[in-house]
């Protein structure tokens, strides 16, 4: 989530825990899947 630890963001937002933060905001981060796929592909290629 923007390169920041989810626990820290959760606390700043006043959520009861990181799971709530992830549930609320994960769906509004459409680029995450593409970034994760690119990162994983780079790992595989470098192995």
From TrEMBL:
<dbReference type="InterPro" id="IPR013762">
    <property type="entry name" value="Integrase-like_cat_sf"/>
</dbReference>
<keyword id="KW-0233">DNA recombination</keyword>
<dbReference type="GO" id="GO:0006310">
    <property type="term" value="P:DNA recombination"/>
</dbReference>
<dbReference type="InterPro" id="IPR011010">
    <property type="entry name" value="DNA_brk_join_enz"/>
</dbReference>
<protein>
    <recommendedName>
        <fullName>Phage integrase family protein</fullName>
    </recommendedName>
</protein>
<dbReference type="GO" id="GO:0015074">
    <property type="term" value="P:DNA integration"/>
</dbReference>
<dbReference type="GO" id="GO:0003677">
    <property type="term" value="F:DNA binding"/>
</dbReference>
